[in-house]
Write a structure and sequence with these properties.
By secondary structure, the protein is α/β, with parallel strands linked by helices. The protein folds into two domains: about 210 residues, 3-Layer(aba) Sandwich (Rossmann fold); about 150 residues, 3-Layer(aba) Sandwich (Rossmann fold). About 45% of the residues lie in helices and about 15% in strands. It has 14 helices and twelve strands. The longest helix is centred in the first third of the chain and has 21 residues. The protein starts with a strand and ends in a 6-residue tail after the last helix. About 40% of the residues are buried.
Length: about 375
Amino acid sequence: MSRILLLTSSPPAVEGHGGQHRTYQILHDLRQTPGVSEVEVFSSERYYHQYRHDRGLRARFFRAAAALHMRIALLRDNPLRLLRRNNYARRIYGGWRVVGDYRRLIAHKRPDLCVFDHTRFYPILRLNKRLGIPTIAACHNLDALHGRLSPHDPLQIRSMLLDFGLELDALRQTEARLCISRVETAVLNGLGYPARYYPYWPVGQIAEVLARTRARRQPQKGLFLILGSLYNDISREGVENFLGETFRRGLPEGVQIKGIGRGWERFSQQTQNLPQLEAHGFVPQETLEDYLSRAQGVLILTQSGFGVLTRLAEMSASGVPVICFPHPMYAIDPLPGITTVENWDKLWDALQRPVPEPIPALEVNQGESILSQTVRWILGTGQS
């Protein structure tokens, strides 16, 4: 029987953002893998939250020293950071204390395999290579390219491509690479780094919550939701463009839109002049389930980037129709209940058209997951 260590940037959670839901799926599929007796989660996010709240003098000194060491290491990786700031840093989850804690963890009980969801664990990946611990990359996205606006400054483009090269260097050192997006799978395979498509689909308690929402649905005509946090550039740009169009056109009569997710608070003043649009920010799970059970549909406004794939799958599973631009659909297989629009004119038309109900349930293959197959192949207990 095998022991697996899951390294994650965000702890898996039923009530959380899309990244946490993806990690929940990874954890669920690992636990369902034949021959796996134990899966332990090592979360850098939980570690950093505890570390930041330590106000002792010694902790503050080591925090400052670690930050300086990290800054030097990041500049060594990409000197263009001096001139252009980037979102990506492959060492950010590999500070002194994180690596030290990881060393103690594997010294106490060595894993047979590691799975990580972010290339920012690069220092731990290098340690695994030295120790002969095989590693699978099941990353949420190609993070050097994710969540940022397309740069037009030539120097920013060079800096982004250097970050992407660093990410590829981390991925090439793994035994297997699994991607949530068909686009990312094609990019890696095209560059000569074999990868497999490992799509997101709700499992376990998340699937139960969405099934409960589907059973409760009583759509209210004209009620639409915009879901998701606005902390990355791509999501924020989509909402800003939508607000601009709303101020210019006005919303159709009878349409009411609720913006839900962290970061919406920054738009509260702008939406005061739009009585048909409410900026709610974060809401409790019970409130979100109530809104989803009553919504005519959900709007996804991104036109670039690599995100929103978890949201598309979860809305389809819960029977909530989605209106989006074609861009995210290039990355996944077709899903029931998704309406694509080519431009803002078509989106405004879609807001006024009735959406067919109910959305048919997608028949999901209940066989062994791609992750389970890959784990068994690496451990020598199955076929890839």
